[in-house]
Amino acid sequence: MRATTACLSKGFFGRSLDEFKRLSNSSLSLKTRHVLTYSHLAFKLEGIKGPSGPLALHDFHNADSIESCKTLSDKDIGGFSTVALDWVPQSKDVPEAIQGPGYARFHGTISTDLPANKPDIQRSGYAAWRTLDRKPTIFGKALFNIDMYAYLALRIRSDGRSYLVNVQTESVVPTDLHQHRLFAKRPGKWETVLIKWNDFVRTNHGFVVEPQTEMLRQKVRTLGIGLTDRVPGPFSLCIERIWATNDTSEGDEIIATPPVDMKEGQLKNKQGQHINWSDQ
Predict the structure, then answer these.
(1) Smallest Cα–Cα separation from 227: which of 86, 116, 104, 84?
(2) How many CB atoms lie within 10 A of CB 48?
(3) In the predicted model, is pLDDT for residue 2 greater than 50?
(4) According to the model, what pLDDT value does residue 93 have?
(5) In whole angstroms, what is the distance from residue 267 CA to residue 156 CA?
(6) How far is CA 162 from the centre of its chain?
(7) 165: β partners
(8) What average pLDDT is seen over the chain?
(9) Distance CA 280, CA 199 (A)
(10) Comparing C-alpha atoms, which of 99, 92, 31, 97 is closest to residue 61?
């Protein structure tokens, strides 16, 4: 049996080497944390950022980064919403408050109009984007392990609409998502939002799944952002990068738990009750 050209390509072995380094660093980090614990050193473990600092999950620092994402909307079922994910280069005249040379703009128009020729479609008005599955390595499927991190961090510039952050894991139910509201405190300006991984809600087709189960944090497949508020009109959200971290100083805002000021969300449980979120 001969190996295929794809498996012998530099890209395949390059990805495998990167995965090996990541797995080695993760293992070393866990051992280091145990040594620190058992040695009773006067050291705050909360300050440890992970295996080698924050874990980059996706960034839009170059134009090619758009190719590893896909967009979705109700147009797939005959609806009339429009969606696009474009790369925007850093302005030379008015520098943006971002690290890289560019960012992505998730934009379009939400329409709740129903297709006249599809009477079975009773609900419309959504748009989203997500990352594609990462290419395999010699170790198999390439998945993110965010188990050692407390927060998901996003560098964004929002228009203030009610977006949802979507996380897909290697779940037994492929259509399950873990979701959380993306609260922007400063619409129109760049900001970094931190969301606790433990605060994500497991959903399926827009409904909260009961009983809730913990996210498979060692097997994160894809990440993305969606808009399902069904408010007709244009939307625009800019994203520079997404990463996992333990460093709270990286964020401008942290979504608190337990909730202080509750707001009704787009997600519902099986009884039709809306899920509330905190924006504090």
Answers:
(1) 84
(2) 17
(3) no
(4) 87
(5) 22
(6) 15
(7) 180, 225
(8) 81
(9) 13
(10) 99
In angstroms, the Cα distances linking 235 to 83, 132, 224, 226, 267 are 9, 23, 16, 11, 19
- Measured between alpha carbons, how far is 148 from 145 in angstroms, rounded to an integer? 8
Identity (one letter) of the amino acid at 214?
Answer: E
Averaged over 214-242, what is the pLDDT? 97
Q: What is the pLDDT of residue 171?
A: 87
**Measured distance CA(128)–CA(83) in Å, rounded:** 7
Residue 47: pLDDT over 80: no
- Tell me the backbone φ, ψ of residue 176, rounded to 5 degrees: -70, 140
